[in-house]
Each structure stands twice: as structure tokens, then as C-alpha cells.
Design brief:
The complex is a heterodimer of chains A (259) and B (306). Chain A has 259 residues and is α/β, with parallel strands linked by helices. Chain A has helices at residues 43-49, 80-86, 102-113, 119-132, 136-139, 152-165, 182-195, 208-214, 238-243, 248-254; strands at 5-14, 17-27, 32-36, 60-68, 71-72, 87-90, 170-174, 200-204, 217-223, 230-237. Chain B is an all-alpha fold and 306 residues long. Chain B has helices at 8-44, 56-92, 95-110, 113-139, 156-180, 184-192, 197-226, 229-234, 254-261, 268-296. The chains are: A alpha/beta (259), B mainly alpha (306).
């Protein structure tokens, strides 16, 4: 199920503007890789390029290779829609579909593939996904209520349930806790810990403590100045990057001297 | 505590703005008063005192029917096209195309209705004769197309098509604005699940825009109800009630009927015509009021179903 992702010589452009330059990284399966770095360093852009979501901005394109499950995601025969079904995404702000119920939100993805689903199958998917996202016990009596009526942390877990309901190989998380309170954040972090037994997880975070808590590996992005492309400075096991970084910039950022 | 300083500029501008708002209300009240005062003798007039030779109710009911029927048909034609064009502009077209298309649609709104009327009468109506004959022959079992097909093409269907084109610009503009307001978050949620563009539109744009589309339709309906010249020129009317849309006998609309009959009217007939205007006033008022209610209603369905 989970696959590792190999990125080679990836350059990401918005039109003519080079946003992220020459990234080489391997994201191992069944582990959590955190992307950290100051604002504008391209970590979110890079994350979005892993399931081709950044292409929703007009003029965005890449060169280089992103290989998951032996397949180059940017090969001309690959449809971005299929990529996104294999590589799910959770966003910065919880975004359940406002007019859908909790159950409908979970089923939104699976229903794209099979329009006619048996009720028992649908119920199974709802229960399994919500249980996996640690939300089942809180919402099992109100599956028909709107998803937007939940608290922020619950909504974010609903979004995680929705993302894993399509059984992706990889989960991308773009600052999933930055809109949440500390208690909800801690719940989501525990959840990330549990999910990595089944999924390859990549998470962007502004919060270095969070990166240290949840990730197995850390990648530090930086940029030389405004208008310059972001670059991957270094990556490695999280303990190593935090205790003994090989680059001066990484050390400075981790110690809070900039960013 | 110091007293708020009154600046002369503020006082003057406030007075101007206030009186402008007041003028609108006074105008509306004056129109309503005029219609009521002049209309009531027409409503109470006996059948032999007016040119149409019937009681007011018998006179006005076919007109009300024709007005609503023409506007409704126009709405049925215009709504899917407006939604399609708006969606193309907001979510499909590349930026260098969407601008000009939106501009051309807005230009349509600037074409005077008499031009649409002339076009409908001289170009569209003759062109529709063939299709109407075909409809009568092949779909005549449906009461709408029972025929006999009009030999001039100046039918209810032609009038409704012209009306549809005329309400298209406002409807497209309103729908486009609503579609553009779809939260990016919801669109991304759908796309990240592997939705195609159309699936994304169905999952996030339409649910968000539903109440907006309905109110856009209602506002357009208000326009179609009151349209005069185009209908007056295109429709060959005979004051009956029929759902048959391709025959040469059609109900007229209130506005078109006033325009066509007013010059030759005298005495209580004029009052009766003004009374029909009052009826139209009430209908359009009700439609716009309903639209306002819908716009004001909360966007999200409170009790989403499972």
C-alpha cells in the first residue's frame, strides 16, 4: 500500500519564475517526513508538487522526476486526477464540504470512483475511515449532521478521514495544525503517529517542535533572498538534523535565529 | 467628553444621500398611487363600457397567464445557458478568453429591446417556421407542440427565445460572480480527492452557488415579466389561454398589450389598461421580493441529509 517517493532534480516554476530549485530527496514509506523552513522557502509548493495540486495555479509546471510506485508522476501519460487519488492531501484550514453531512464528506472521494455503492459498503467505508481518523466515537450518533458543525479539530480529523477513505498510498499534510488549538493539535499529532504504520506521510510545518515530535525525517528548505528560488538545504533523520545539522543555515533556523 | 465636531462637508453629503434615498421611495409610492387611483375605475367598469367588452377579470387573466408563461419559458431557456457560460468564464476559460467573453455578454445587455424585437420579428420568426412544422409533425402529441404550426413563426416560443436572450446577460453576470466566490478551500478539497474539473464543480461550486443561482433566476424573471417592446413586436397575440407554444393564436403579455392598445384606447378602457399595469406591478414586486428573501437566506443548509 504505502510507497516511497523519489524526487530527482525537481525544479518548480510558476510561469517563468523558478519557485523551487533542484530538489533531490527520497521520502521513505511508512514514515513521517517533515518539511520545515521560513515563509516563502517553497516547502508548501514542493509538497503540492508531489500530487500535482500546484498545477491548479495557472502557469505552474515542473521539470525533473517524481517517482512513486515505480511511476513518474509527471510522465506525459499520467493524468493528475489519478495521481491525486493515490496521493491524498490535508490542508491548512479544515475544509469539509459545507453542504454535506459527516458521512457524505467521508464518502465524497469513494463516490467519485463508484457512483453506485451498496449501502453496506458505504457504511463500512464511513466507519472504517472515521475510526482510523480517531473520530468515530465522537460522531457515530450524528453521521447525518453537517460536517461544518464540528469543532475545528474534529473537522480536521474529518478531512483526514475523507482523505484516507479513497485508500491513498501517501498522505500530504500542509500545516494541518496551524489553525487548531494546542489540544486538537496534540490529537492530530498522535493520529499522524498511528497513520504512519499504513501510509507514507509528508507534512509541512512552521512549528519546529512539531516537526521534532512527529517526524522520522526532516528536510530543511531555505531561500537566499526575496525573489530567489527556494532550495532544499539538507535532509536526514530528525534527531540528526535537530541535534547536529551539517549546514550553518539549518542550525541558525532551528535555534530560532531567523524565520 | 468633547462634543462630536460637525463638519459642513459631512452634513451636506449626508443630506444629499438621504434625499436621494428618499426620492426613490417617493417615486415608488407615487407610481403605486397612480396605478391604484387610475386603475380602480377600470377594474370596476362594466363590460359594455370598455373596448374589450368583458369584465376586468376575464380581460386580465389571459394577460397574466401570457406574462407568466412567456417569462417562465424564457427562464427555462436562459438558465442552463447562463450557468454554462458563467461556469466557462469562471472555471474553464483561459484568462485571455474569459475577459472578452464576459465583456461581449455585458454588451448584449446594452442592446435596446426594440432591436431584439425587430430581430425576433424579421429574422428569428421566419427561421423558426421550419422547426415549428417539424415539431408539430413529430412531437404534436405533446400539448405544447399541438399546432397548427404558425406560418409566420411569430409564436409564444419565438417570443420566449427572444426574451431568453435578453435576460441572459444579467443572469450570466450574477452567476459568474457567485461562482467566482466559491471558497478556494472547498475547490481544493474536491481536487485533492481526485475529482475531475466537472466533479469539482459539482462537489464544491454548485452547492455553494445554489441559492445564488435561484435568486439570479428570480431577478431575471422580474426582467422578463416587464419586457414590452420585444414581445409586442414578435408575438401575434389573440387573448386566449393556451400552453400551445407554436400556433398562431397566443396569449399576449400585460406589458405588450398596454403598449399595443394604449394609443387607441379611451375612457374607461385606459383605466382598465392601467389596472393591468397595477397587476404587473404587483407580480414583479412579488417576484423581486421573493428573490430578496432567497438572497438573504443563509447559504448553508442547516440540516444536511445523510
Amino acid at each position: 500500500m504505502a510507497h516511497h517517493i523519489d524526487v530527482t532534480d525537481l525544479n518548480i516554476y510558476y510561469g517563468d519564475f523558478l519557485a523551487v530549485e533542484n530538489v533531490n530527496i527520497s521520502i521513505p514509506a511508512r514514515s513521517v517526513t517533515a518539511f520545515i523552513g521560513p515563509s516563502g522557502c517553497g516547502k508548501s509548493t514542493f509538497l503540492r508538487s508531489l500530487n500535482r495540486m500546484h498545477e491548479e495555479i495557472k502557469g505552474a509546471h515542473v521539470d525533473g522526476k517524481v517517482i512513486a510506485n515505480g511511476q513518474d508522476l509527471y510522465a506525459s501519460t499520467v493524468d493528475p486526477v489519478d495521481v491525486r487519488r493515490q496521493i491524498g492531501m490535508v490542508f491548512q484550514r479544515p475544509n469539509p464540504f459545507p453542504t454535506m453531512s459527516i458521512a457524505q464528506n467521508v464518502l465524497a472521494g469513494p463516490r467519485l470512483n463508484s457512483k453506485r455503492m451498496k449501502k453496506s459498503t458505504a457504511d463500512d467505508i464511513v466507519e472504517k475511515s472515521l475510526t482510523r481518523a480517531g473520530l468515530w466515537n465522537e460522531v457515530k450518533d450524528r453521521l447525518g449532521r453537517p460536517g461544518s458543525g464540528l469543532s475545528g479539530g474534529q473537522q480536521q480529523r474529518l478531512c483526514i478521514a475523507r482523505a484516507i477513505a479513497v485508500e491513498p498510498d501517501v498522505l500530504l499534510m500542509d500545516e494541518p495544525c496551524s489553525a487548531l488549538d494546542p489540544i486538537s493539535t496534540s490529537v492530530i499529532e498522535d493520529l499522524i503517529h498511528e497513520l504512519k504504520t499504513d501510509y507514507t506521510i509528508a507534512i509541512v510545518t512552521h512549528n519546529m517542535q512539531q516537526a521534532a515530535r512527529v517526524s522520522d525525517r526532516t528536510a530543511f528548505f531555505n531561500l537566499n533572498g526575496v525573489g530567489q528560488p527556494g532550495r532544499l538545504i539538507e535532509h536526514g533523520p530528525t534527531e540528526l538534523v535537530f541535534s547536529n545539522p551539517s549546514e550553518a543555515a539549518t542550525e541558525a533556523y532551528i535555534q530560532g535565529r531567523f524565520g | 467628553m468633547s462634543k462630536t465636531i460637525q463638519r459642513p462637508g459631512d452634513t451636506i453629503f449626508r443630506g444629499l444621500a438621504q434625499s436621494a434615498a428618499f426620492v426613490i421611495l417617493v417615486t415608488l409610492a407615487a407610481v403605486a398611487l397612480f396605478l391604484t387611483a387610475k386603475g380602480i375605475p377600470g377594474i370596476t367598469a362594466d363590460a359594455d363600457q370598455v373596448k374589450h367588452g368583458t369584465t376586468f377579470a376575464t380581460f386580465v387573466i389571459p394577460l397574466v397567464f401570457g406574462t407568466l408563461w412567456a417569462a417562465l419559458l424564457a427562464l427555462v431557456f436562459a438558465t442552463p445557458i447562463a450557468i454554462g457560460v458563467a461556469l466557462f468564464i469562471s472555471h474553464y476559460a483561459p484568462r485571455r478568453l474569459s475577459g472578452p467573453i464576459g465583456y461581449v455578454i455585458d454588451l448584449l445587455a446594452a442592446v435596446p429591446s426594440v432591436v431584439f424585437g425587430a430581430w425576433g420579428m424579421m429574422t428569428l420568426a421566419p427561421a423558426m417556421q421550419g422547426p415549428y412544422a417539424w415539431l408539430e409533425e413529430n412531437l404534436g402529441f405533446i400539448p405544447l407542440f399541438a399546432g397548427p404550426a404558425s406560418s409566420t413563426g411569430r409564436t409564444m416560443l419565438t417570443a420566449a427565445l427572444v426574451l431568453a436572450i435578453m435576460i441572459l446577460p444579467i443572469m450570466t453576470a450574477l452567476c459568474r460572480e457567485i461562482f467566482l466566490q466559491t471558497p478556494r478551500l472547498n475547490e481544493e478539497a474536491a481536487l485533492a480527492l481526485g475529482a475531475t474539473r466537472w466533479e469539482m464543480v459539482r462537489m464544491s461550486v454548485f452547492p455553494h452557488a445554489k441559492s445564488g443561482i435561484i435568486s439570479a433566476a428570480m431577478l431575471s424573471l422580474g426582467r422578463a415579466l416587464g419586457e414590452t417592446m420585444a414581445v409586442a413586436m414578435v408575438l401575434s397575440a389573440s387573448g386566449i389561454i393556451t400552453f400551445n407554444v407554436i400556433s398562431s393564436t397566443n396569449p399576449s403579455t400585460i406589458a405588450a398589450n398596454i403598449a399595443l392598445s394604449f394609443n387607441e384606447a379611451s375612457g374607461l378602457t385606459v383605466n382598465a389598461l392601467i389596472a393591468t399595469g397595477l397587476v404587473l406591478f404587483v407580480i414583479t414586486f412579488a417576484v423581486n421580493f421573493a428573490a430578496r428573501l432567497l438572497i438573504g437566506s443563509p447559504k448553508r443548509a442547516k440540516g444536511a441529509k445523510k
